[in-house]
Design a protein that fits this description.
Residues 10-63 form the P-type domain. Belongs to the glycosyl hydrolase 31 family. It is found in: Membrane. There is one protein chain. The protein contains 13 helices and 41 strands. It has 810 residues and is an alpha+beta fold. Among the domains are: 1-65, Spasmolytic Protein, domain 1 (Irregular); 69-292, Immunoglobulin-like (Sandwich), CATH 2.60.40. A hairpin with a 2-residue loop joins strand 23 (411-414) and strand 24 (417-420). Helix 5 runs antiparallel to helix 6, helix 6 crosses helix 8 and helix 10 (572-582) runs parallel beside helix 11. The longest helix has 17 residues, at 427-443. 51% of the residues are buried. Bound molecules: 2-acetamido-2-deoxy-beta-D-glucopyranose (4 copies). Residues 399, 403, 407, 423, 496-498 line the site of one 2-acetamido-2-deoxy-beta-D-glucopyranose.
Length: 810
């Protein structure tokens, strides 16, 4: 029995920061009795813990708590295997007492660890990951295994830094409760989406829950996406970084504590994780994306300005907004409609009265080089008279819907009333979905889809008839899910999908719908980013860009909040500042809720309208740079909107009110009301004001910048050459505009950059050699003379480029 103070192993980390929670269940007041029934230590904390956050645990594992031992380790072609055994059962049902451990030295910078049940196959995330064929020859990591209790220690060979040490708390592996803890190498942890929080996570007893959920972004709740990956900057100012990815889609808690340490607590699947060695943050992200897949190259117009709102009410009213934008010469590439275009909220229909001119509007958009995107929800109305709604009738015929365990169709409730939910884990569903899209496209030639509500969201818990009382519905441990139940505002966890139960498949629903929507490449559909672009909020002062930066780390670069805010009334100043900031979101869409006043640029005063127009023209002028950055994301897993995380400068580690495009263009937006200045941090070096060319030589300091309402601060880092173009009101027209290069010379007079250019629409231009990739360099020839930018085409695309003009900031 544990003594209250807890004996410790000599040398073990001391103190409260290292107490691992033995009673994470929510809504339970942990008593000594409950705690000691688990053979844990009980010490009620006297200190104050912030409301909503679980503070220092009162009940925690004592040293020597039963865990697994490692036996029979063998060398294999790719690493090692071993067997983990345990004799004492835990307080959760169905302990798996014998486990198979597999260490895979996949590349010099990637280690994979799998812990599985040798006697029974368990659910694994159905995504293709790269397979190594030979063991890494000179890994940047070393692995030590602790036998008793079992643990894995991963070190960076070059510095000896301990990146992972799982001996810090007992390992759990029960059917529905798997838990792995580790020390962290520092307090600098990023990623772990999707949550509303600062870019740099707070590790003070902060538990993040993952389980896809449709809810306005709120702190401390699970949100739309689930991304169990973190990036960590290592201690000691070396500037090295590593990453960790748990390949698991079940509902989970990720508990951070000040040790610094982390606990992964998932309720299904297996423990299958990767460690990425970087060594710099950009390489870590690239290595992570090598596993989960690089982002899709967006079609050029996806990078233009998008206008949307819920409740235009009619196609004519929507069309009027587009015409107004044209009259004022304000850039716009894409017009959207929210759900109100539909007839009785039915998918694949449009309202024959209020949206009768929708097909004409779409044709008009096309004739102006503009595009149309509309919302589409997965819920298919199940209550239309037979023969009157093809999507449902045909769906039933083909058996595409998710069922209850008894084989009946699961019915939930969404906008059109009662609905069935397509099972996108089945290929048959993909064909049916495609047929629906094609039938609708024949009437309304849309260009893109906004696939929404695919958490999947339902207005009832589980189904209209509830859910059966099973182990999947009521697991022994439920992570900190909003609503307290897996089925809260979604489908029954026990619901049956082709690949597996909804319990396992829930957080993959949106991803699989996105795959179905791109099937056949028939439409110009771009999805990545739109799947989870709800990083929206009411108030700019409360919502700087951390969500956007986090998504860029997670391989979703095409991201941006709803410009000017979705819910609540916007204000002119807020909307101007937000449009300026939004001009630098990789994805920029103005969107608001039903019953709010219009917030498209023409709805404001001439002064505000002109400020918005200027910021959008600025974005359009920078399109060649943005497009090139997306190419880099697509081919190398680089970020587009990039945090100011300069590895060697610890002062940049927490900055999320400024960011960069690529490595050179720094954006310092105003995020507070009623000010005409902004304070920004300038990492050491030479920076140029993008508009005036004035230079700032920073020692690594904060600077106060002028920021009148019509101005967004932009600075170019030394040593860059960036491609720009003369802007126009659509990117299509702009693509024929003259290109321009801006270079910012470094102290030694050099600069470099690149341009990727193709027709903006054809996919696979890289594979078919229909593109230009040009590298630019500037060299100093005499003390005051710089050879004009020299360029050479690296690939294909002869004759596709206009003459280049150049300017140099010195
Ligand atoms: C790993 O953690 C254990 C338990 O806290 C500790 O005793 C050990 O020293 C750690 N090992 C390393 C290499 O840090
Ligand atoms: C929309 O505008 C067209 C053309 O001006 C007009 O014929 C039609 O009646 C309008 N539709 C509605 C629903 O107001
Ligand atoms: C759901 O039930 C229908 C009708 O029995 C069947 O055709 C379909 O395959 C079932 N779907 C799943 C995922 O089991
Ligand atoms: C856009 O291009 C058109 C035609 O080339 C031109 O008339 C117009 O002035 C341009 N607009 C802007 C804002 O440059």
């Amino acid at each position: 029995t544990a003594s209250p103070t807890g004996p410790r192993h000599p040398g073990a980390p001391q103190g409260r920061a290292w107490r691992f929670d033995c009673y994470p269940e929510r809504g339970v007041v942990v008593t000594r009795e409950l705690c000691e029934a688990r053979n844990c230590c009980f010490i009620p904390a006297s200190s104050f813990s912030a409301p909503g956050r679980n503070g220092v645990p009162w009940c925690f594992y004592p040293p020597g708590f039963p865990s697994y031992s490692l036996v029979s380790v063998k060398a294999t072609e790719l690493g090692q295997t071993g067997t983990l055994v345990k004799t004492v059962k835990t307080y959760y049902p169905k302990d798996i007492l014998t486990l198979h451990l597999e260490l895979l030295y996949e590349t010099d910078h990637r280690l994979r660890v799998r812990i599985t049940d040798p006697s029974e196959s368990r659910f694994e995330v159905p995504i293709a990951v790269p397979k190594a064929t030979e063991k890494a020859s000179s890994p940047a990591y070393s692995v030590e295994l602790s036998n008793e209790p079992f643990g894995i220690i991963v070190k960076r060979t070059s510095t000896g830094a301990v990146l992972l040490n799982t001996t810090v708390a007992p390992l759990f592996y029960c059917d529905q409760f798997l838990q792995l803890s580790s020390s962290l190498s520092s307090q600098y942890i990023y990623g772990l989406g999707e949550h509303r929080s600062s870019f740099l996570h707070d590790i003070h007893w902060n538990t993040l829950t993952m389980w896809a959920r449709d809810v306005p972004p709120t702190e401390l709740t699970n949100l739309y996406g689930a991304h169990p990956f973190y990036l960590a900057m290592e201690e000691g100012g070396t500037g090295t970084a590593h990453g960790f990815f748990l390949l698991n889609s079940n509902a989970m808690d990720v508990a951070l504590q000040p040790g610094p340490a982390i606990t992964w607590r998932t309720i299904g699947g297996i423990l299958d994780f990767y460690v990425f060695l970087g060594p710099d943050p950009a390489s870590v992200i690239g290595q992570y994306l090598e596993v989960v897949g690089y982002p899709t190259m967006p079609v050029y117009w996806a990078l233009g300005y998008h206008l949307c709102r819920w409740g235009y009410g009619s196609s004519n009213a929507t069309w009027d907004v587009v015409k107004n934008m044209r009259n004022y010469g304000i850039p716009q590439d894409v017009q959207w409609n929210d759900i109100d275009y539909m007839d009785r909220s039915l998918d694949f229909t449009f309202d024959p009265a209020t949206f009768s001119t929708l097909p004409d509007m779409v044709k008009d958009l096309h004739s102006h080089g503009q595009r149309y995107v509309m919302m589409l929800d997965p819920g298919i109305s199940s209550i239309q008279p037979e023969g009157e709604y093809w999507p449902y009738d045909e769906g039933l015929r083909r058996g595409v819907f998710i069922n209850h365990t008894d084989g009946s169709t699961l019915i939930g409730k969404v906008w059109p009333g009662l609905t069935a939910f397509p099972d996108f884990s089945d290929d048959v569903t993909h064909e049916w979905w495609y047929d629906n899209l094609k039938r609708f496209h024949d009437k309304v030639p849309f260009d893109g889809l906004w696939i929404d509500m695919n958490e999947p969201s339902s207005f009832v818990d589980g189904s209209t008839v509830g859910c059966p009382d099973t182990e999947l519905e009521n697991p022994p441990y439920t992570p900190g899910i909003l609503g307290g139940l897996l089925r809260a505002k979604t489908l029954c966890a026990s619901a049956v999908q082709k690949t597996s139960s909804h319990y396992n498949m829930h957080s993959l629903y949106g991803l699989l719908e996105a795959k179905a929507s791109a099937w056949g490449q028939y439409f110009d559909i771009w999805m990545k980013g739109l799947v989870s672009n709800h990083v929206s909020s009411q108030s700019l002062s409360l919502h700087p860009p951390p969500g956007m930066l986090t998504f860029n780390l997670l391989g979703v670069p095409l991201v941006g909040a709803d410009v000017c805010g979705f819910s609540e009334q916007t204000e002119e100043e807020l909307c101007v500042r937000w449009t300026q900031l939004g001009a630098f979101y990789p994805f920029t869409r103005n969107h608001n809720a039903i019953d709010q006043k219009p917030q498209d640029p023409p709805a404001f005063s001439p002064l505000a309208r002109s400020a918005m127009k200027q910021s959008l023209l600025l974005r359009y002028s920078l399109f060649p740079l943005l497009y090139t950055l997306f190419h880099r994301a697509h081919t190398h897993g680089h970020t587009v909107a990039r945090p100011l995380l300069f590895p060697k400068d610890v002062r940049t580690y927490g900055i999320d009110r400024q960011f960069l495009w690529g490595k050179s263009l720094m954006v310092t937006p105003v995020l507070d009301p009623g000010v005409d200045f902004v304070v920004g941090y300038f990492p050491q070096g030479l920076w140029y004001d993008y508009y005036t060319g004035d230079s700032i030589r920073s020692k690594g300091e904060e600077l106060r910048l002028k920021a009148p309402l019509e101005h967004i601060n932009l600075h170019l880092r030394e040593g860059a050459v960036i491609p720009t173009q003369r802007p126009n009101t659509t990117l299509f027209v702009s693509s024929g505009q003259p290109l321009h290069l801006v270079s910012s010379l470094s102290e030694d007079g050099s600069a470099g950059g690149e341009l990727f250019w193709d027709d903006g629409e054809t996919s696979d231009t890289l594979e078919t050699d229909q593109y230009a990739h040009i590298v630019f360099t500037v060299v100093k020839v005499r003390s005051d003379h710089y050879r004009p930018v020299r360029s050479h085409s690296v690939h294909g695309g002869e004759g596709t480029l206009r003459p280049l003009q150049t300017s140099t900031l010195t």
